[in-house]
Design brief:
single chain; 199 residues; alpha+beta; 2 domains; five-stranded mixed β-sheet; 10 strands; elongated
Length: 199
């Protein structure tokens, strides 16, 4: 294309050469093979590092009655601001009511009442944490969300002696910073949270 015109014959030759290479199958050269193997080795090394950190939990930290709690993030579908909810008559006091989350009707448990903790009422900061497993899904009421963080399993100790009664059943442990990690699997499987009686 020295005079500004396209060399259509050269373009045609290149297209035909590319077509022949595709038809015969592509075989990378030794340098490209080395680059590919090096890249794969680096990826495998990263996977090993991730396995080495498998002794930590990713938790969503939240507040209940001025105490810090956490739930493993893989049990959480989403965090939803408490807007409108519908109270239900004839249910235990720990059932706050029902919420409509994008067309899904879900019950909300006031976890403070379920755990017999001091009740501070509802405020603008209250949030619903939607938790789920393969069979059960509901929301728990949190006073406020503090954020997402990693917790080392080795940093978790047994439940404190001051945590008695129903709360102790649902604890995975307590961190050195006194954050209580809830056992979401136990909460989701607990028969006392499921209401069967009719009004």
């Amino acid at each position: 294309m020295s005079d500004g015109r396209l060399d259509w014959e050269e373009i045609q030759r290149r297209v035909e050469a590319a077509g022949r290479a595709i038809a015969c199958g592509y075989a990378p050269g030794p340098e490209e093979v080395r680059r590919t193997l090096k890249k794969r080795a680096a990826m495998l090394a990263c996977e090993k590092e991730e396995e080495a950190t498998a002794d930590s939990l990713e938790v969503v930290e939240f507040l209940l009655a001025r105490e810090r709690y956490g739930i493993e993030s893989h049990f959480i579908r989403e965090v939803y601001p408490l807007k409108d909810y519908t109270p239900l008559p004839g249910v235990p006091p720990f059932v706050l009511g029902l919420v409509n989350v994008r067309g899904r009707i879900l019950s909300v448990v006031d976890i403070k009442k379920f755990f017999d903790m001091p009740d501070q009422g509802i405020s603008d900061l209250n949030t619903i944490i939607l938790i789920k497993d393969g069979t059960m899904e509901f929301g728990i009421l949190a006073d406020a969300i503090a954020g997402v963080r990693k917790v080392a399993v080795s940093d978790m100790g047994p439940p404190l002696p001051t945590l008695t009664g129903i709360r102790r059943e649902f604890l995975k442990g307590v961190t050195g910073e006194r954050m209580v990690i809830l056992d979401a699997a136990r909460l989701l499987a607990d028969k006392n949270i499921v209401i069967h009686h009719e009004v």
